[in-house]
Amino acid sequence: MKPFRSLISLEKALEIVRSAVKPIERTELIPIKEALGRVLSEDTMAKMDVPPFDRAAMDGYAVRAEDTYDAKDFDPKILREIDVIHAGEISDKIVHKGECIQVSTGCKMPSGSDAVVMVESTEQVGAEVKIFKPVHPKESVSSMGEDIAAGSIILKEGDVLNPSKIGALAALGIQKIRVYEKPRVAIIPTGEEIAELGCKLREGQVYDVNSYTLSSIVEENGGIPVNFEIIPDTYEDLGSVIKDALKYDLVAFSGGSSVGERDVLRDVIQDLGDVLFHGVQIKPGKPTLCGIVGDKIIFGIPGYPTSCLSNAYRFLLPAVRRLARLPPRIEVIVKAKISRRIVSALGRSQFLTVKLEGDVAHPVFKESGAITSMADADGYVDIPANVDLIEAGDEVDVILLR
């Protein structure tokens, strides 16, 4: 056994991770239909106006605005309809004094017209159209370039592409866009006590949970998980797999980071590179380890499923998002009253999972090996290291798990 020499605060550990993780530089060209959630790697300039012509913004009649100035509810102006066009159609006729053309929303404005009278303000009898309300020039007209002007920067490097931004690209006819690549994260489970799904469990074994929870965290936050087979907790095996994993952007081990006789991950990383920290003032997950080999960050995350997942939320999630150039995850926080007294470990930040019933938060943490401590939870309470007691009925901030 190799006891921890010292523990660092959660805040200090997160600061170290943030400083060590360098955002990805590689880029790729992808179709915009695959671009949701991706990060632009260059500014995007409009090469055309949107709309590319003056168009009707309402169903009604294209008119010369000056022909409607005296229109009143009981004394309408009467114009002669000379054509009818629908969206996508173009009239070859010119609107002269006293004339109008019936248009649909989106139509190119006919020559000679400068406004649209909404159909609700009109009445048509044969070819005569009564106009009951005046309009001013450009009324109910979307001018050429009003949405996007040719030559303007519509999206900037670092923008995260959402549906509306993808819509702007489509409006410009852009089919492909250059984005930063997604970081690839090696997920490596360790230990003789875990087995692959589908295998028959030997006595003393449990199924590999962590590969799937860690992969989900990576994928949900802009990365590509690369799953390795389960490897033994030996110095030789760990050293060999680290060398193989260095072709990826980040490496996450589950298990092997504690202080037992077989927990040698720290020694391997120390010999190949540098250990940035080992041992954090948190509960669960005190044995969390972070190191660097070459220019790649390596996490050693405790093997117990609840410890693994809770610490993945704290460390792996922000590291993957920073690699992917995504902004920090927005936490959704709700107020609730704790249902029972909680005695925390003074000097260690506690990740306390809770289930919500109305405005009451019920703790559901069982022990570090119970994945249902997370599966049954709606969120968690982050109890600071300087708090050792929360009384029943105290109001707490619940950070929702999504």
Annotation field: number of helices? 7
CATH topology of the largest domain: Molybdenum Cofactor Biosythetic Enzyme, Chain A
Q: Helicity, in percent?
A: 10-25%
Largest sheet: 6 strands, mixed
Known CATH architecture of the largest domain: 3-Layer(aba) Sandwich
CATH superfamily (homologous) name of the largest domain:
MoaB/Mog-like domain
Strand content: 25-35%
Give start-end ranges of low-pLDDT stretches: none
Distance between the termini: 38 Å
Assembly context of the chains: single chain
What's the domain count? 4
Q: What is the spatial order of strands in the main beta sheet?
A: 7-4-6-5-9-8
What's the CATH class label of the largest domain? Alpha Beta
Description:
The protein has 4 domains: about 10-25 and about 180-325, Molybdenum Cofactor Biosythetic Enzyme, Chain A, CATH 3.40.980; about 25-50 and about 155-180, Molybdopterin biosynthesis moea protein, domain 2; about 55-140, Beta Complex (Molybdopterin biosynthesis moeA protein, domain 3), CATH 2.170.190; about 335-400, Beta Barrel (Beta-clip). It contains 7 helices and 28 strands. It has helices at about 10-20, 165-170, 210-220, 235-245, 265-270, 305-325, 370-375, and strands at about 25-30, 45, 55, 60-65, 75-85, 100-105, 115-120, 120-125, 130, 140, 155, 175-180, 185-190, 195, 205, 225, 250-255, 275-280, 280-285, 290-295, 295-300, 335-340, 340-345, 350-355, 360-365, 380-385, 390, 395-400. A 6-stranded mixed beta sheet has the order 7-4-6-5-9-8, with no helix packed on it. A 6-stranded mixed beta sheet has the order 16-13-17-21-20-18, with helices on both faces. The chain has a 5-stranded mixed β-barrel with strand order 22-25-24-26-28. The two termini are about 40 Å apart. The model has no long low-confidence stretch (mean pLDDT about 95).
